[in-house]
Amino acid sequence: MAEFQVRVSSEAIYYFEELKKYYTRDSKVDITRSQILTKAFEETKVITNWTSIINDTETISLEYLEYQKGYGTNVKVQISEEVEKGIRELKILLPNFTATRSVTFGVAVKFMLKGAIILNKTGKINTDKNLSTIEAIEELKENLQDIVAPINYNMLENILDSFKNNILLIK
What we know:
Elements: E1 2-8, H1 10-24, H2 33-44, H3 51-55, E2 73-79, H4 81-93, H5 105-122, H6 127-145, H7 150-170
Helix pairs in contact: 1-2, 1-5, 2-5, 4-5, 6-7
């Protein structure tokens, strides 16, 4: 476990609280910010295009958010090295989806938490990307038909169809 310290906005603190409600709604066990961050990381690994998360203004109502005066809040958590590495990679990846050259760790954490909330509320993220994935699977099936023996192709086709259906369930 590594100690991870990050300065986050009031919005990110609000996201922590919203996720805490989601993660504890079925049990009375209280969870820590470390556990929330770890679970959010695991859930958002599937996101490949962050544009829809960053630009989403409808799924999460910030109407009752009270912005704290000052520069933010420091959050100190114990997380695994895998989660810390994932946050660092997300920090490098996110500028591809924003109009900025870089983002802070606080912004990376905020968008990761926001992505987890959107996934929990809607059950889907980035449906356009999923559609292109489905098309890619269909194209793969066509290409493999020429090189896979006919006796094996039916089994392969069933595997690919099952895979495609699992992707559709994520939507």
